[in-house]
Amino acid sequence: MEAPDALADAGDDASGAAGTTFSNALMKRLAAQALPQGAALDPDAVSMLNQCCTGFIRAMAGHLQGPKTVTPDAVDALLAEMGFGEYAAAAAAQAESTDETTHRKKKRAKVKYTDEEIAERIAEQEKLCAASWKQMYGD
After folding, report:
1. CA 112, CA 125: separation in Å to the nearest integer?
2. pTM of the predicted model, to two decimals?
3. Does residue 91 sit within a domain?
4. Which InterPro entries does this chain map to (predicted)?
5. Residue 75 counted as domain residue
6. Per-residue pLDDT tens over the stretch 5-42
7. How many domains are contained in the chain?
């Protein structure tokens, strides 16, 4: 499999930060979200996951050509190159699902008010501000 070579080729130069890794707390939190309820993670496994994630990101940085933004296509291509092509499809589906969920949440968050409702809210806010000013500073 090509994974060890791809990670080794990424080296310290690709990321520009030699020896940089994620915090163990972050790795534990990410793993806890992915593992089944009640599953434990050995500290050595946390360290190994940390090195793997860091190596994968460095490999992506080493393979970037042109723009400096890592796109889902770049992740898919690197996964396929490293022999994890079957995971690339699952990752792409998950990313698409996440994008759709985020889009729906943003759309719901945009509440549309009528001009009358906006005027009522502004008037209410002005009353509250005036009452607060009067309470603090008197007349």
Report:
1. 18
2. 0.51
3. no
4. Histone-fold
5. yes
6. 444 444 444 444 556 788 888 888 888 888 888 888 88
7. 1
Query: Which single residue is written with the structure tokens 């995971």?
Result: 87
136 occurs within a structural domain: no
Q: Is residue 127 part of a domain?
A: no
Buried b (16+ CB within 10 A) or exposed e, 69-80: eeeeebbbebbe
In order along its 139 residues, the chain shows pLDDT tens digits of: 344 444 444 444 444 455 678 888 888 888 888 888 888 888 898 889 888 888 888 888 887 766 677 777 788 888 888 888 888 888 888 778 877 777 777 776 676 778 898 899 999 999 999 988 888 887 6
Q: Are 74 and 83 in contact (CB under 8 A)?
A: no
Nearest to 85 by CA among 95, 76, 72: 76
Say how far apart CA 105 and CA 130 lie, in whole Å.
35
Alpha-helix runs per DSSP H in 1-114: 3-15, 24-34, 43-63, 72-81, 85-109
Look up the domain containing 42 and give its range: 3-83
